[in-house]
Amino acid sequence: MGVLKNPLPVRLVVGMLAENLELAQEATKKLEERFGVVDLEMPPVPFAHTNYYKDELGENPFKSFVAFEERINRESIKDIKIETNEMEKIWNRRVNLDPGYMTLGQFFLATTKDQRHRVYLGGGIFAEVTLYFEDGHFHPFDWTYPDYRSESYIKFLEKARERLAYQIATGKPYSKRGKSDRSV
C-alpha cells in the first residue's frame, strides 16, 4: 500500500493573449495584484498561430507569459482558472488568460474545454498535461497547441523551470539571489 503524501507546491504560470500591448500590461498588473510577485515575464509577441480569437481580440493580438514567485498547491489551479475567467470580463474578453502550473517534469494548462486527454477537476475546469520535461528540455505531445511548441514559449518555460528548481533546492525564491531580472 502506498503512503499518502502531498506533492510539492508548483509554479503558477499564466499565458495572456491580448488585443494590444496596453491591455497586456494592464492584465499583468492585475494578475500581480492577485497572485503576488512576478519573477519572470515573457514580453508580448505577435500571436499568429490561429485565427480562433479573431472576433474577440482582432487581427493582431499579442501573447505573453508571467510566472509567479510564490508557489501554489496543484489543486488550486481549478479556482485560479475560474477566477481568471472572471477577470477576463473586466476587459470584455479582449484579454484571454490561460493559467497553468509547472512541476519539474510537466507543464499543465487549465481549460474549460473537455477532450479525451484532459482530466476533469470540478467546477467546469479540466487540466491538460501540455508539455513534458526530458533530456534538459520541454517536449510537446500530439495534442499540444501549436504555439506551445514554439521555440519562444519553450525557452520561456524552461527558464521558469530553472527558477522553480532553484526554489525547490534552496527553499528561497529566485529573486533572493540578488538579481532582479524578471524578463527572458
List keywords for this structure.
184 residues; 28% helix
Cα Rg: 16 Å
**Portion of residues in helices?**
25-40%
Poorly predicted spans: none
User: How large is the count of helical segments?
Assistant: 4
Task: Please provide the ordered H/E string of secondary-structure elements.
Answer: EHEHEHEEEEEH
What is the arithmetic mean of pLDDT? 92
Tally of individual domains: 1
Largest beta sheet, briefly? 8 strands, antiparallel
So what's the overall shape?
globular
Tell me how many strands there are.
8
Structural class: alpha+beta
Strand content: 25-35%
Terminal residue distance: 44 Å
Q: Any overview of this molecule?
A:
This protein is of the alpha+beta class and 184 residues long. The chain contains 4 helices and 8 strands; from the N terminus they run E-H-E-H-E-H-E-E-E-E-E-H. Strands 1, 2, 3, 4, 5, 6, 7 and 8 form an 8-stranded antiparallel β-sheet that branches.
